[in-house]
Amino acid sequence: MKIVEHVSLTSLTTFKVGGDARYVLACESVEDIQGALAFIRERSLSWYVLGGGSNVLASDSGYEGVILQLKNTEVTFSSTDTARESCVVVVGAGVSWDALVSKTVAEGLWGLENLAGIPGSVGAAPVQNIGAYGADVSDTLLYVDAFDTKTDALVRLTKDECVFGYRNSLFKEDPAYIIVRVAFQLSKIPTPRIQYADLLALREQGRVLDTSLQIAEAVREVRSKKFPDLHITGTAGSFFKNPTISSEAFSLLKAQYPELPGFPSSEDASVIKIPLGWILDHVLNLRGYTKGQVRLFEKQALVLVAEHGATTEEINAFAKEVETKVFSATGIKIEREVRML
Ligand code: NAP
User: Fold this and answer.
1) Is the pTM of this model over 0.90?
2) Over the stretch 204-219, which tens digit does the pLDDT of each residue have?
């Protein structure tokens, strides 16, 4: 287990803001996790597991506890079903999510291609049930091996036990689990999902989307035109969740804004998921809205961007202003997708 002290959270998060983390402990094995917990308990410190840091807003005053980073990077493929129609892929929490997508589509496997280009690590993916273009991690996830810090044991949680929801899971509600590895069941039989407008538009332009590799490449291309490059720009991607509202509330808003898009929620068809980016753009005219070093990205208003020198206090004040504006105009209380550290 590697221990480093006083590490700037600007270097550990894609927002590139925040003070110092008191300790950063890198774990490659369950024994390392046990060692890290002993270190934490001896000093009565708080702890937080950080993957790629792409969904976190760190405090300007830093973090006085321990940042845990999972560094195990094993990837194993095995065909288990007798018909050999699927493949189980078991992946260490420290593997980069997008590297995993590349590996699986290169093997001709189906299931992760729509999730290409999402930043972060495999261990972080189930926490908020990452999803894009009509696919969620929970669609193909088989089980999660996690270290339960309440019992100090490694446990295997089935997909049902992970209690997945829209950008939500047991791990978000109960941070006592440290995800060690994740298993996916991927199909060898083509299962293309190209119903989202961005992908349909590409196909209409003549793009061939017959293989999972081709779809993954198309998704990366669409994303690169819409989202800023996290390696260069300070951002955590979508700052807010797309809200869901009752169908009655949707009808009222639709009467006011006839172009407003809405999609029945996959969890409950009686509620409608609406693209917050559309409201920020077309109702509030906030695309590109800037205050000091903080702004809503000009190509996708759901994305909050922090230029060099921005503080977390500024970002928070800006986000609160956006939340208030959305509530005043639509009556919708929006929630943050980004987590506070
Ligand atoms: P988008 O494709 O413009 O979609 C905006 C909203 O409309 C999302 O709530 C999306 O649902 C919904 N939507 C669009 N077409 C749909 C369809 N055919 N059927 C059902 N729902 C539909 O969104 P974007 O901001 O450009 O992002 C592209 C994709 O990346 C989206 O799927 C978005 O959710 C995803 N994304 C995920 C994360 C994350 O996991 N943290 C972060 C950024 C973006 P869904 O949200 O269910 O797709």
Assistant:
1) yes
2) 999 999 999 999 999 9
